Amino acid sequence: MLQKFVASDLGSSRELELVQQHLNRLFSLSNYAHSEYPLLNVWTSENGAIARAELPGLDPSEVEISLVNDTVTVQGERHCQSGNENQLCHRQERRFGQFSRSLQLPFRVDAEGVQAKFFDGVLEITLPRAESDKARKINVITE
Amino acid sequence: MPSELLEVVKPEVESAKETASATVRPRKTVAPRTDVYESKEQLQFFIDMPGVKQENIDITLEQNILTVRGGVEPPEMPGYRLTYAEHDIADYQRVFTLSNEIERAEIQASIKNGVLKLVLPKSKAALPRKIAIQSA
To answer: Where are the domains of chain B?
Structure first.
């Protein structure tokens, strides 16, 4: 009887935990819990890839993009925009400091064709696939 | 027990849905990261809203409740597929409760490189005042 009670009690607390997790996901900043910075979204097609990174507060001149073989690296430094000694800080959730993030692509990149745009705090890098890397159709010759 | 609770909550949820339906967007909403600083004269907010254009920002101050919304247009990548995602493509919304009286007419908002900066001057009545003592 007691065991049953304990078991059901445990069960309900587990359910509660689940509910709590769901609620946390709804209301919290949990989607920012990554240790990597900046966060990347990558779109791909057979012709290449487009990567987007959220870099709010940065100036395009402060971002450095480099490409080595099939790996693209974004680095820079985010400066603290605000705060002096006479100010009281109520919240500081935004990150600042140096960052570096690399993305390895599953194809060779046409280095000449790489383009980068920066708008509204979003960096967009277009990485075209090298011609020599694209799928080739092979004709079968009948003898 | 939980179902009873749901029954109680349901009508309220439904009515909230109805009032919201005029402005509702089928999009996830996230709370943007924010820095808040206070000096003697003003409050300063720095809110990270990457991807938000100036025209899609909505700021309201009602009593002492400051609500900030930013709409994000989902990127269109014709011919491309989203294959790897670390961040949501979501609208931003955050509500702040202010403890100070604010000079409403003088609130300034500006956005640069995806960071919304709000400057809220404290009202004259809330500023610290020096009281002179008169000798009798």
So the answer is: 27-74+82-124
Whole-angstrom Cα distance, residue B89 to residue B73? 8
Complex-level ipTM beyond the 0.90 threshold: no
Other residues' Cβ atoms within 10 Å of the Cβ of residue B39: 12
The residue with tokens 């403890």 is B99
Nearest CA in chain A to B49: A56
- The CATH class for the domain spanning B27-74+82-124 reads mainly beta
Q: How many Cβ contacts (< 8 angstroms) between chains A and B?
A: 121
* 3 state DSSP class of A94: coil
CB contact under 8 A, B37 and A29: no
Q: What is the CATH number of domain A34-81+93-132?
A: 2.60.40.790
Among the listed residues A55, A38, A36, the one whose alpha carbon sits nearest the alpha carbon of residue A120: A55
Using pLDDT thresholds of 50, 70 and 90, give the confidence band for residue A24.
Answer: low
Q: Determine what percent of chain A is predicted with pLDDT higher than 70.
A: 76
B113/A121 CB distance under 8 A:
yes
pLDDT at A90: 86
With CA atoms as reference, the chain B residue closest to A62 would be B113
Distance CA A48, CA A130 (A): 8
Rounded CA separation A110/B50 (Å): 28
**Cα distance between residue A108 and residue A71, in whole Å:** 9
Give the Cα separation of B7 and A16 in Å (integer): 19
CB contacts of B53 in chain A (<8 Å) are 120
